[in-house]
Amino acid sequence: MKRTIREPFFEVGIKNYIYGDDVLELAKVAESASEKYDVDVLFVTPYADIRRVAEQCKKLIILAPYMDVLRPGRGMADVLPESIRAAGAHGVVVNHCERPMALSSVRQTIERANELDMISFACSDTIAETQAIAHLRPDIMNPEPTELIGKGVASDMDFILASIKAVKEICPDVLVEIAAGITSGEQVYQAIYAGAEGAGAASGIVNAKDPFATLEEMVANARKAYDDRHGGEIA
Q1: What is the pLDDT of residues 112-160, one digit of tens each?
Q2: What is the pLDDT of residue 232?
Q3: Where residue 180 falls among pLDDT bands split at 50, 70, 90?
Q4: Shortest CA distance to 56 belongs to which of 87, 27, 22?
């Protein structure tokens, strides 16, 4: 059965900034923050660490960074969807700017993810690309301008609002995450208070002076923004 994602959620990216024991250590901090603030945390885990993180961090929603669409059999060095699912991944990132895909491949990957009850987390660069991929009904859309990723400059509010509108007008059930360039809890707060269901960060966490404290601050602000949006005035 596909894992259910509750609102609000927060996504932690790893990429290749850290590896080995450092990945598991960060995953344990993410799981602790998830429990403390009652926020679902998506953890994009390097392939080599999926099984270890899955076995030791049961609350995290684990995403693989990519997968191919082949089926069991031949395909040396390809990433088999069944393999990452068996290792403990609950979903997969699709069309990240560091692994861009043609629209036809995006569609095929979302379809394969659905076959295996895996979450599809689809990235897009522009509003037009966001609209095109939203028609394919991934579970999550992550609109993020490529030029902002890893630069420490978050998307402006016009882009955030336009992205949310573009997705919801096509498929209201698709969750929206805002992530590019986020480095602080305040930016997480602004994105979710504006209407996104989730927010996320990679380099903004792992390259921070205190990655653990930064991660907890961001998760805490995801919860606070969502509660404020649904229950009253901005604090």
Answers
A1: 999 999 999 999 999 999 999 999 999 999 998 776 555 566 678 899 9
A2: 55
A3: confident
A4: 27
Q: Is the peptide bond before 72 cis (omega within 30 degrees of 0)?
A: no
The contacts of residue 32 (CB under 8 Å, 6+ apart) are: 216
Cβ atoms of 222 and 34 closer than 8 Å: no
Side-chain half-sphere of 24: how many Cα atoms within 13 Å?
Answer: 11
Structural domains in the chain, CATH included, are 9-228 (3.20.20.70)
Phi, psi of 231 (to 5 degrees): -130, 0
Tokens of 184: 């602080």
Beta-strand relationship, 140-143 and 40-44: unpaired
Q: How far apart are CA 216 and CA 37, in angstroms?
A: 9
Active site residues: 96, 144
Q: Contact 139/120 with Cβ under 8 angstroms?
A: yes
